[in-house]
Amino acid sequence: MDSLYFKAALYKSLLELKKATAEDIAAYLLAKGIEATPQKISQYLIKMPGVKYKRLSYKTIYFLEGSNA
C-alpha cells in the first residue's frame, strides 16, 4: 500500500474517531477495507506531525493536536 495513502487514511480515521487506540484504528481501517496491524499504525502515528498521544499503563491513546483529550 502506498505510504501517503496510508497516512491519509490514518489522519482521516483520527478525524472521525477523535480519540482512539491503535487497535481501534486498525478495526476502523479494516472496516474500510484497509488491512493494518496496530503495531504498524503506532509506528506511523508517533512520527506524524499534529498527532499527539497519551500513554496509559496498558494502552496508548492517539488524538489530533488541538482536540480535547
Care to give the gist of this entry?
This protein has helices at residues 3-17, 22-31, 38-47, and strands at 19-21, 51-55, 60-64.
Question: Helices and strands in order, then pairings?
Answer:
Blueprint: H1 3-17, E1 19-21, H2 22-31, H3 38-47, E2 51-55, E3 60-64
Antiparallel strand pairs: 1-3, 2-3
Structural overview:
It is built from three helices and three strands, in the order αβααββ. By secondary structure, the protein is of the alpha+beta class. The protein has a single domain (3-64), classed as Arc Repressor Mutant, subunit A. Strands 1-3-2 form a three-stranded antiparallel β-sheet. A hairpin with a 4-residue loop joins strand 2 (51-55) and strand 3. Helix 2 (22-31) crosses helix 3 (38-47). The model has no long low-confidence stretch (mean pLDDT 89).
CATH topology descriptor: Arc Repressor Mutant, subunit A
Structural class: alpha+beta
Supply the number of helical segments.
Answer: 3
- The average pLDDT score comes to 89
Poorly predicted ranges? none
Distance between the termini: 30 Å
Helix content: 40-55%
Radius of gyration: 11 Å
Tell me, what is the CATH class?
Mainly Alpha
Q: What sort of overall outline do the alpha carbons produce when their principal axes are compared?
A: globular
CATH architectural grouping: Orthogonal Bundle
Largest sheet, described in full?
A: 3 strands, antiparallel
Estimate what percentage of residues fall within beta strands.
15-25%
Number of domains as seen in the coordinates:
1
- Write out the CATH superfamily name: Winged helix-like DNA-binding domain superfamily/Winged helix DNA-binding domain
The order of strands across the largest sheet is 1-3-2
- SSE string, helix = H, strand = E? HEHHEE
Q: Care to count the β-strands?
A: 3
